[in-house]
């Protein structure tokens, strides 16, 4: 008899498992994949470079509680992410800041005067109803087309006008020269990798793990009191109301016989090529070696579910499933897939901590 059956061994499952195990609960975690760590899983490739199998994961948070909890299981490489965007044949800082504007327009704005530029170009007196509106009211239509329209269409497969405004609301516009992609108090990557951090987190006598295991095939064979589910909500209920749409990504890894491929960790390609961005892992990990590995990302509609598609009709469909969840006894849904919403890693960790607090 297990106190908790946890489906999924990513952040949601692993964090809740560790906290419950420390309270004396017996835990069984099952995962379809052949590894722990969910989408944060990393490994050393054939050239000895630590790569993220499911795309770059840079941890950043303002939550001291979340940072201190994870710090129990890892030391950190204190990395601050830099992103450039390939626009009109040149690489410029992203998010848009003072230097971005000056490089593109040949201007000489300062931190004190850049607001004059944004006030001049932004669209005024329009109601913000979608992702496009959110951007043009901040930076105007020209910068929107340069940086956002093409990228969003590649990323989501639909135009920004068809997406909820929250998609672009989280993208900052800087009125200074700060070229860090994130400005959170705590930023970095686990020093020995995410997988090692998860191994340490799950190293507890009350935690048992079954990989290569589909929950549906073992649920009737396992005795347990409560369920924590981090998979897709629609799949759990056999798609009884229809399928929730997700965006997936195809990853193209390449190792090059050179020191570095690009100047920063990630370069976005909003208008050129089929891929959305290229990430070079040595920037993220600080490794020193004579070759380098990059990954190109191609967004697609089929494949592993990564991003819930932020449209109101999809949220309405999810609410039908949420009602079903609320009718279950001793069952809790967590994570991007279980709650059908985009969340950064720190929010996922915080949600798991809060759940265990509530169960207490």
Architecture blueprint of SSEs:
Layout: E1 2-7, H1 11-21, E2 27-30, E3 42-44, E4 50-52, E5 59-61, H2 64-71, E6 76-77, E7 83-87, E8 90-94, H3 98-105, H4 114-121, H5 131-156, H6 166-169, E9 186-190, H7 194-202, E10 207-210, H8 215-218, E11 224-229, H9 233-236, E12 246-256, E13 266-268, E14 277-280, H10 281-285, E15 292-300, E16 307-308, H11 312-326, E17 331-333, H12 335-339, H13 345-359
Parallel strand pairs: 1-2, 1-11, 2-10, 7-13, 11-17
Antiparallel strand pairs: 3-4, 5-9, 6-9, 7-8, 12-15, 12-16, 13-14, 14-15
Helix pairs in contact: 1-13
Low-confidence stretches: none
Identify the overall geometry.
Answer: globular
CATH superfamily of the largest domain: NAD(P)-binding Rossmann-like Domain
Helix content: 25-40%
Overall SS class: alpha/beta
Strand order of the largest sheet: 8-7-13-14-15-12-16
Task: Return the domain count.
Answer: 2
Number of helices: 13
Determine the oligomeric state from the structure: single chain
- Largest beta-sheet details: 7 strands, mixed
CATH architecture of the largest domain: 3-Layer(aba) Sandwich
Strand content: 15-25%
Give the CATH class of the largest domain.
Alpha Beta
User: What is the rounded distance between the termini?
Assistant: 20 Å
Mean pLDDT: 96
* Rg, Å, rounded: 22 Å
- The beta-strand count equals 17
Give the CATH topology of the largest domain: Rossmann fold
Order of helices and strands: EHEEEEHEEEHHHHEHEHEHEEEHEEHEHH
